[in-house]
Amino acid sequence: MLDDLDDSRRGFLKCMAWAGTGALFAFNGGIGSSIGLDAALAAPVKHASIQPFTFAQISDSHIGFNKPPNADARATFREAIAKVKALPNRPDFVIHTGDVSQLSRDEEFDDAGQILKELGLPVFFVPGEHDMLDPDGGKAFLNRFGKGSQGAGWYSFDHRGVHFVALVNVADLKPGGMGNLGAGQLAWLKADLAGRSSSTPIVVFAHIPLWTVYADWGWGTDDSAEALKLLARFGSVTVLNGHIHQITQKIEGKVAFHTARSTAFPQPAPGAAPSPGPLKVPSEQLRSMLGITDALFVRGHDRIALIDSTLSA
Amino acid sequence: MTRAFKILTFQASAIAAGALIIGAVADMARAAPAAPAAVTIGNFTFNSPALTVKPGTTVTWTNADDIPHTVVSKDGAFKSKVLDTGDRFSFTFAKAGQFGYYCSLHPHMTGIVTVKA
Fold first, then answer.
1. Which of A78, A161, A169, A233 qualifies as a FRET site for A71, CA 20 to 30 Å off?
2. SS3 of B57, please?
3. Among residues A233, A169, A257, which one has the least CA distance to residue A206?
4. pLDDT score recorded for residue A299
5. CA-CA distances (angstroms) from residue A309 to A24, A123, A291?
6. Residue A100: which of A141, A137, A134, A68 has the closest Cα?
7. pTM of the predicted protein model
8. Distance (Å) from the C-alpha of residue A156 to the closest C-alpha of chain B?
């Protein structure tokens, strides 16, 4: 059966690289088609046991950021939360893929937590590198948003037949390197996945992309191949990341990768600027480059849909 | 009487101060202090990624980016707090040697300070 799945997917893999700022890819019978919506489709799921549900992804809120192009990252974060609340299908929960704060300051974390309370939904976090800047290297974040997690903040949970894995690739970064998971976390991941059926859909989320988007800017994770090796036997793996403040996506084997927009400021496309610093867009353009991601599991449709929407839409 | 005493006191202070200044200048000449060096952080790079200085040099890093960075030595010799826009960090290199460093937020940013007499 897995071989069938492979065959059905081979035909559309080439369609998925660098899909730009969002299009809806629909996969039926292995044929990929793109329609002009601000949305994208990720890995198919062939398991009728999964109940339909949605969850939302928000990322890179950078609470405390106040420079061009966004003088108030709190305000745009509130708008993103309002957007999540207004989704037609109420999400079961929200994941925040890191850089909650700009400088790991108490008031930044407090304000983020306060704004998130307006959701009235469970929120699952992973830290970004901006959340590791307190003198204790991430304790301020973990005390608020990482309760019950292990190591630098990793954990897993199950929801309606889907196994969610939260990974941390912003701790103990090595000079000259990119993101890093580390041996301890990889050993934990191996144990976490052991004994799970290969038919279990897996959603992995972490801050820095788990594939190399652009090495010159450090947009990748040095030891992500180790993690992907552990995930290789699963029929459906969806990897959700942030960090690069723009949508990118690709499919490699059975793994669908997707990065979300920031709610604070956009960053340039890889290599399109001298540095990955904030893209200083005019204020009237800002909200068209910020947004949220809505992930939809649909029973009977054999797929997980990731729908990106902007704050201006 | 009172006035003359005041003038005398003033002269004594001036002489003492002059002596202090001369002494300080002499000390400085003997120690031959190294001129301070500066590294600007901009566009996610250390703008003098390979810097050579004399022992005793104080190097100051200034973050000119609108994203925070850090300056962390590879061997633990120095480690800045997070540097927001315009923030500075200084370290005085007393001994000769090579000191590789990086930004712990963006570890692809690296630099090295070579200290030699």
1. A169
2. strand
3. A169
4. 55
5. 11, 19, 6
6. A141
7. 0.82
8. 25
Place of tokens 């930044």: A108
DSSP state of A217: G
Nearest to A207 by CA among A278, A151, A273, A154: A154
Query: Is B77 touching A (CB cutoff 8 A)?
Result: no
What is the DSSP secondary-structure string of A133-175? -STTSSHHHHHHH-TT-BTTTBEEEEETTEEEEE---BSSPPT
What is d(CA A219, CA A179) in angstroms, rounded to the nearest whole number?
8
Q: Residue B80 in contact with residue B90, Cβ under 8 Å?
A: no
Name the token pair of A146.
């990482």
Lookup result for tokens 């204020």:
A283
| Strand pairing report for A31-35 and A202-205 | unpaired
In the sheet where A202-205 sits, what is the strand order? A155-159, A162-166, A202-205, A237-241, A255-259, A248-252
Q: Where are the domains of chain A?
A: 2-310
The yes/no answer to whether this complex scores an ipTM above 0.85 is no
Asked whether the beta carbons of A77 and A106 are under 8 A apart, the reply is no
- Among A211, A287, A129, A138, which Cα is nearest to B44's? A129
Residues in A lying within 8 Å of B, measured between beta carbons: 67-68, 102-104, 129-130, 132-133, 135, 173-178, 215-218, 274-278
Q: Is the separation of the CB atoms in A304 and A295 below 8 Å? A: yes
Residues of A in contact with B70 (CB under 8 A): 133
B66 reaches A (C-beta below 8 A): yes
Radius of gyration of chain B, Cα coordinates, nearest whole angstrom: 21
Q: Which of A149, A168, A196 is nearest to A97 (CA)?
A: A168
- Given an 8 Å threshold on Cβ–Cβ distance, is A217 in contact with B44? yes
Two structure tokens written together for A78: 């509130």
Check if CATH label 3.30.540.10 holds for domain A2-310: no
- Number of Cβ within a 10 Å radius of residue A272: 10
A213 close to A246: Cβ distance less than 8 angstroms: no
Per-block average pLDDT, block size 10, for chain A (313 residues)? 35 29 30 33 50 93 98 98 95 98 98 97 98 96 97 96 96 96 98 95 97 97 98 95 97 92 98 97 97 81 79 88
